[in-house]
Amino acid sequence: MTATYTFDLFSSLDGYGAVGGNWTGYWGKQGPELLDHRLSLYAEEQRMVFGANTYRAFARMLAASTEESEVRDPWVTRMRNLPTTVVSTTLEGPLDWPDATVVSGDAVDVVARLKEESEVPLRSHGSLSMNRALMAAGLVDRLHVTLFPVITGQTGLDPIFQDAADFDLELVENRTLDGHIQELIYRPTLH
User: Fold this and answer.
1) Where is the signal peptide (predicted)?
2) Number of helices and strands in the chain (H, E)
3) Domain at 5-190, CATH class
4) CA dist 109 to 9, 102, 137, Å?
């Protein structure tokens, strides 16, 4: 049986995965419903998959944070403690991440093998360039978009689908969180 692979991401309405300027985390729009829902998503048994850049960003962010910081929201702490595979040709283990292993090689090959071997679902939060390549290779089963009600045309960073292939998206699930955040789960197929 092949494990399901979910590309999980946060986005502004105009398609940016991060932001500069004076915005705060979650673009300042998070509420208790979003945070509880995120914790429930990560409570399930699963394996995280990150590219090297996302691993480095998470490790830096967590190292610079305090226990009271929103960076250490309970869902993030849970995510950090899940079994994790970091796909990289530049990193070497051991990593400063509980239960993480580095696998060297092309992400398409690594994830194809993980999908065949894993007994639990696979999830990647972020890792934009890696997940664009995985989508193009047909390895992403679900695209899980949490859409925040902001436009960051001047301060947006990390355009999520820049240089991506074209995809048709079948909406399989959606919900509104805290009255204004949209969660959209799609099944992507190459167009």
Assistant:
1) none
2) 5, 10
3) alpha beta
4) 22, 14, 10
Parallel, antiparallel, or unpaired for β 156-159 and 16-19? antiparallel
* pLDDT tens string 22-55: 998 899 999 999 999 999 999 999 999 999 999 9
Q: DSSP labels for 6-33? A: EEEEEEETTSEEEE-TT--GGGG---HH
How far apart are alpha carbons 121 and 110 in whole angstroms? 15
54: its two tokens: 């996302």
From the list 9, 6, 5, 4, the residue with the least C-alpha distance to 183 is 9
Classify residue 96 by its DSSP letter.
Answer: S
Span 57-81, pLDDT tens digits: 999 888 877 777 767 789 999 999 9
